[in-house]
Amino acid sequence: MAVTKFNRFCTLVFAFISFSTLAAVLPEDRVDAMYHSYDGGGMSIDGPSILIRKKVSNAVSVSANYYVDSVSSASIDVLATASPYKEKRDEQSLGVDYLNEKTIFSLGYSQSQENDYDAKSYKLAVSQSFFGDLSTLSLSYAQGDDVVKQNGNELFEEEVKRSNYTVSWSQIATKNWTVDFNLEAITEQGYLNNPYRSYRYRDDSAALGYSYATEIYPETRTSNAVALRSRYFLPVNGALYGEIRFFSDTWGISASNYKLGYSQALYDNWLIDFHVRHYAQTKADFYQDMFERKDQFNFMARDKEMSTFNDLTIGLKARYLHTFDRSSLIKSASVNIAWDHMRFDYDDFRNVLQTENPGEEGFYSYSANVVRAFVSLWY
Fold first, then answer.
1. Which residues pair with 169 in a beta bridge?
2. Which residues of 175-200 are buried (b: 16+ CB within 10 A; e: fewer)?
3. Phi, psi of 11 (to 5 degrees)
4. What are the beta bridge partners of residue 238?
5. pLDDT tens-digit profile of 190-218?
């Protein structure tokens, strides 16, 4: 029997936009090849990614991913205290999913390498569906072990350990409405700041009226986040979706994230998506744009990511899905492209590239564009 337009649309949407698993099924066999690009605020990041998923039995699925970031940075932080730089990050990951009736057990391992940073992560997750697959409870734990280095200083080597705990509940509320609730807690311990970043303090003997010193962060951090996501399918082959997320940590940062989007199926094979997202956060307790003197407090930071700021994102996505006949080796294929335009505005991080009136420079702001293009093959 031919698939109805509405059911086909639902299939397109769930493949197009990542959403929590709503039933105990193994991931489909597929290959994804992606190119990603970020350009904004003096920083450019781009590179490829390859993901392969394959069932090796009715109960086991394996996956492998290779991801590359090529970074070229001349951001305001870099230009204030150093010279532009380039670096490359390679990441590899492996995963295994095991299905036992209505339960999925997942194991994952990933590692990444940079010239001054090595990271390893281990993940364990379990997902159980209930009530005729209308509800799904997921639990996960991840452990990260990182090593921080510093270019030009062979004696510098610090460790960072992270633990991530996640609980989520996914619910098919009605035939048209899905809801996802997520709780996350992260604990971190070790060297949590960037060895290249500096805070500035008043110094009348300096030409600009201030000098720089290496930032000092606490060696522990605990953060918590709660998120609610929902999607409602409309009879016009469209869907409304939204997200609300709140974050807080022991450094004094509080953040909120709101997202609203709409997806529309066109001509059976096309899916178009539009979304708007707003993020806002308060500064860390130990952040200041300029301190009164060196070593004024036990902890001191001027990283703009620790400051008070907000960003607005407007995004578009397009997907074309083609289904092959049953005799073909490839079941279906899709071509996808996504673009996000982001605007960042800082409330207490000043533009130090303005050399007049130290401490009273204009507040910093910038725009960035993120592009992702990828091809997916199901087999």
1. 137, 181
2. eeebbbebebebebebbbbbbbbbbb
3. -60, -45
4. 234, 264
5. 999 999 999 999 999 999 999 999 999 99
